[in-house]
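Sample intake — Bifunctional oligoribonuclease/PAP phosphatase NrnA
Collected from: Haloferax litoreum
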Amino acid sequence: MVRRLVLGCGGLEGSFIETLADRPGSVVVVTDRKGRAEDFRADGVAATAGDPNDPTNYPEYADVVIVGGDSTDENRDVARTARGHFPDASLVVYLGTDASESSRADIERIADETIDPTRLVADRIYDAVGSSHSERLNRLMRVLRSLDGRLAVVMHDNPDPDAIASGLALQAIAKRANVESDVCYFGDISHQENRALVNLLDLNLRVLDGAPEPDEYAGFALVDHSRPGVNDRLPTDTTIDIVVDHHPPRAPVEARYVDLRSGVGATSTLLTEYLRRLGIVPDTQVATALLFGIQVDTNDFTREVSTADFEAAAYLFPHVDTDLLARVETPSMTSDTMETLARSIANRDVRGEVLTSNVGDIRERDALAQAADYLLGMDGVDVSVVYGLMDGTVYVSGRAHGGRVDLGEMFRDALSPIGSAGGHADMAGAQIPLGILDDVGDDSRESLATIVTDIVAGRLFETLEHAPSTPRLDVDVTFEYPLDK
């Protein structure tokens, strides 16, 4: 149990003392203001009316001592007394507005930490109006406030937890700007973890069957992807207002506001930063989704993780429903997923450190990612690629570790000419339309499987053979087009 002692409270608000008292541990206040001591006692806080510089007024033990009088010189004297009486305690000293350079220097030699209200206010003002973070946020809010109607927050097709959480967070930010919005997606949510996230959090997401009517939305935002018509089914000429993504783009990105930062592990991290700087406390639903999004995209903080990801997680954690998060993390596996996993193992083709597997027809495309994750754990495998057929399209999912190759670049080089592909150095995906090949009868499916293997695996191995190992380049882009564009 942490034992806290507050000596003098002229510079400290009473609400701070009460909040401190509500935390685990104990609080004792010593103040020379009799009325303040009586007020604290009336609120259930242990308080003594006496001289803060007199050790006879102190309790027997203290783990943390906070010196909070109005006068800096008096605080310096009290700090010296407290340090002598509690040599092992953490000592925090408040600097009054009268702090001279000599008094400040004396206190900084004694205290473990100082609280300077003048500097705090100046830093907060600069943070609000003068930093790159605040400028970025101000541009985003200007774009949102310029919308005359509803906003469509569009996730990529078959959204994962990072996209879902980012959409929910941007919806909350839009609400701060008095803009109503829908979090939308094309396709299906088939991965059991993703379904569990939506169902357990009771999320209200809109499934789009086709492009919205021209007058249905006043603006469009893309989260966790950056171009219309690429990994979503919006028309490629859709005017985009907002893009927030952590994937490096393959082609130029056009929107009125763009935030592309590949130096973080998840788009959820960027949206958490927005919430924190706007002073929006996320509700349990949004906080739980954001933390799960960060966990999934960083593979539990082991893949492409940054300091910002840890800071975002620390900010979110007090607002998360941990019991519900545990249920989302351990959903039951469907029979279709288990069948895909079994076929991926049986059909694997290992060449050196690279494993590919054609699982044939699938019903859940997210099962490919789960199979690729699982196969990457095989001894000696640094790259795993699993692909299958569904609805006239070959879906490809890859995972890598060890830094031998940039998997996203490899997928783009090998598969973009015949479909769409992209991703990160250690996680990538692709879609290849089959066209007329999909019209073959059941008796020709085996031949089709061979053709698909030749196309996918053949291109990947050929590209890998000529791919140099190159360092990953982080992208950090933020800009805003004129509002009247």
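Post-analysis note: DSSP finds 16 helices and 19 strands in the chain.
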